[in-house]
Design a protein that fits this description.
Layout: E1 2-6, E2 11-12, E3 14-23, E4 26-33, E5 42-53, E6 61-65, E7 68-72, E8 80-85, E9 89-92
Antiparallel strand pairs: 1-2, 1-5, 3-4, 5-8, 5-9, 6-7
Length: 95
């Protein structure tokens, strides 16, 4: 996840455009963000990583039995998680 702000204090929200890939583990995602304030001189990007440990005890899904879909209910047990905020990336904007 990325957070975008400028040196004037504006925070820019984005909207996901979806993603595509060749397999479930290599997906390329894109998003479109608001137009930058014309007086901004720096764009500050803050990367955030959300780690979750998914197991059969804390994560649902779907399995196929004899060609028929069988839903696996999501258990109530919390998944282990950790959020990491990485160093800001500062981009100088040219006029």
């Amino acid at each position: 996840e990325l957070t975008f702000k400028d040196d004037l204090g504006n925070i820019y929200s984005g909207e996901g455009n979806g993603g595509s890939g060749n397999d479930p583990y290599n997906i390329h995602w894109s998003a479109t963000f608001q137009k930058l304030n014309e007086n901004a001189t720096k764009l500050i990007v803050t990367p955030r990583v959300h780690l979750r440990v998914h197991t059969p005890e804390n994560h649902g899904g779907v399995e196929y039995v004899n060609g028929k879909e069988k839903k696996i209910e999501v258990p109530k047990k919390e998944a282990k998680s950790k959020d990491i905020v990485l160093d800001d990336i500062v981009i100088d904007l040219k006029k």
